[in-house]
Design a protein that fits this description.
The protein is mostly helical and about 200 residues long. Helix content is about 70%, strand content about 0%. The chain is built from 8 helices and no strands. The radius of gyration is 19 Å and the shape is globular.
Length: about 200
Amino acid sequence: MTSSAEDSLKLFAITSQLIEHDLDQIESEFCLDLQRGHRKTIEADQDYYPQIETAIRAEASAMAPQYEVIYSLESSMRRFVNDLLSETTAPNSWWESGRVPQQIKKDSEQRQQRELDTGMTPRSTEPLYFTTFGELGEIIKANWDVFGSIFTSVKAVENVMSRLNSLRGPIAHCSPLAEDEVVRLRLSVRDWFRLMQ
């Protein structure tokens, strides 16, 4: 599958998630059941967490689609960075070959070690998956010789990544997004994929 086809497929998947969210809101607002075959977590967990206010649960439910979009986007970005850098260097050796700024490499490896030290199941064996969202942008900029053939402008990448990072913060830290920020998230995701066309 070509990069353009993959990007279109990713944009379609993220758009589908946002449509599902809109249908959830319609069901909630008009007390409908559109028979879409899924049960809200807020209802399923009521017996286990009755002390949590209904308003907080409703807010969490409204924010879930935004989390899903950010999760999907960030995961696809990591794969994109890994795949493209693996094409230019021996597979899985680009991390060690000087393609990653030293401070990002050090911080990521420290995060990976801290997670290993907890005894919990590690999220990945790859240090790239321990970079922050902002660090992904820095890796792209540091390797503009590779990514410049995909993106139209380093400044455009910086702007879109900055917007996405600003929107990611409240989502990742359990704060609601205003309605216009949800729209901004949707547009920023589209901007990201548009940069690669």
